[in-house]
Specification:
This protein is of the alpha+beta class. Helices cover 17% and strands 25% of the residues. A 5-stranded mixed sheet has the order 2-1-5-3-4, with helices on one face.
């Protein structure tokens, strides 16, 4: 199942500048592993030492935050769109 993954600007150096990549995966967990295989260094930026998605990284499946679905176990289907969005904080 091919899934389209939108890559945020800070991670594009790992994808050769690509803002979107196509990855075969049936779950978010498999997607992250396959992203790492295709673009080494991505997994350590997305996941903590326990393999969980870092709290400052938001992953959306078709505009739904996977944290409110099944997290890393969220199922994917052909044609899905996954967006990786780094959290932004700040202000006064």
């Amino acid at each position: 199942m091919a899934v389209s993954v939108r890559i945020p600007t800070p991670l594009r150096k790992l994808t050769g500048g690509a803002d979107e990549v196509s990855i075969e995966a049936s779950s978010i967990s498999e997607l992250i592993d396959n992203l790492e295989a295709a673009h080494p260094g991505l997994k350590e930026r997305l996941c903590d030492d326990n393999g969980e998605i870092r709290r400052f990284v938001n992953v959306y499946l078709n505009d739904e935050d996977v944290r409110f679905l099944d997290g890393r176990n969220t199922a994917l289907k052909d044609g899905d769109e996954v967006s990786i969005v780094p959290a932004i904080a700040g202000g006064v």
